[in-house]
Amino acid sequence: MSEHTDENQTVDRKDDHIRIVEEEDVETGGTGFQDVRLIHEALPELDYADIDTSVDVFGRELAAPIVIESMTGGHPNTTKLNRALAAAAEETGIAMGVGSQRAALDDPDEGVAESYTVTREVAPNAFLYGNIGAAQLAEYGVGGVERAVEMIDADAMAIHLNFLQEAAQPEGDVDARSCLSAIETVADELSVPVIVKETGNGISRETATRLADAGVDCIDVAGKGGTTWSGVEAHRAAAANDRRHEKVGTRFRNWGLPTAVSTLEASEVHDCVFASGGVRSGLDIAKAVALGARAGGLAKPFLTPAGQGTDAVVELVEDLVAELKTAMFVTGSGTIAALRDADHVVLGQTQTFLDQR
């Protein structure tokens, strides 16, 4: 297969992913947040107007602990989406990650690169982070990752772990050897902090410990409960009449650690954890923070608003903040630090899962 064909394949795959997430049933359940109950404080002794939702991430203050998760880029059709998302992040003071930058690193086409560079153009002050796959680190090295940083003047770089998705993908990269040592090298030498993120299957306590020992600055658990990327690949495989990969993708669509479990486990061994994977509300974010997360991240809920424009994305962010502040108010938490100490209980299957672990 020619290099040019490989480049086109990566670009087209990005467009496929957005279309499938928008049009097909690729949602799972079972984040575990339904089993997390924050204890109501009937006498909060707070003025709602004084509640401070700000949080520090790598020395940068976010207005709220909300992350627009790495979602898209790599196809000219995604430029509009990233422009709206980044402009909203700039306006609301939250963080945003771009989708995998592999397409732009491999393809010199300006339209591909613009789908990423537009983020910094419209969001000169926002906290933006880049994104590259762990499987590609051996190919790109630290120098290649620095190119991804420079592409968007990133404040941090995410290295994503998506090996289940790769296994369900006909053209997937399934050589996972030496990824941890490559991550350790990047974490040690890169000019910006490094976030390691899953893509919908969660990160266990044991893996989080290995990442912490490798010097990773933050862990994004991206647990089970939201978009299932093996399910997305099952749809792509079906369209390509690839029965085996369709079957694998379908079989593993519910695989993974629930987000609440993964958040608890990772927070035990690392002090900077982003909780994502099926996060769908400001209340979910509040629960994640109470479980130990520094911030909560959402992807799919932002996709439709991004297609409508910046104002629609801003409105969703403001809804999330209102729900978060209400949860803080009725738990007597005047700050995010206080919310991290809020009383809560874990019930049902999630507690059973934790007990068995």
UniProtKB/TrEMBL annotation:
Subcellular locations according to the entry: Cytoplasm
FMN-dependent dehydrogenase domain residues: 31-101, 173-341
CDD domains the UniProt entry points to: IDI-2_FMN
Catalyzed chemical reaction(s): isopentenyl diphosphate = dimethylallyl diphosphate
Superkingdom of origin organism: Archaea
Enzyme Commission code(s) on record: 5.3.3.2
Required cofactor(s): Mg(2+); FMN; NADPH
GO biological processes: isoprenoid biosynthetic process
Keyword annotations from UniProtKB, A to Z: Cytoplasm, Flavoprotein, FMN, Isomerase, Isoprene biosynthesis, Magnesium, Metal-binding, NADP
Residues bound to FMN: S70, M71, T72, S100, N131, K197, T227, G278, V279, R280, A299, K300
GO MF annotations in UniProt: FMN binding; isopentenyl-diphosphate delta-isomerase activity; magnesium ion binding; NADPH binding; oxidoreductase activity
SMART domains, sorted: IMPDH
Gene Ontology, cellular component aspect: cytoplasm
Binding positions (substrate): R13, K14, S100, Q101, R102, Q165
Positions of Mg(2+) binding: E166
InterPro entries in the record: Aldolase_TIM (IPR013785), FMN-dep_DH (IPR000262), IPdP_isomerase (IPR011179)
SUPFAM superfamilies for this protein: FMN-linked oxidoreductases
Role summary: Involved in the biosynthesis of isoprenoids. Catalyzes the 1,3-allylic rearrangement of the homoallylic substrate isopentenyl (IPP) to its allylic isomer, dimethylallyl diphosphate (DMAPP).
Subunit composition and interactions: Homooctamer. Dimer of tetramers.
Family note: Belongs to the IPP isomerase type 2 family.
Protein name: Isopentenyl-diphosphate delta-isomerase
Organism of provenance: Halovenus aranensis
Gene name per UniProt: fni
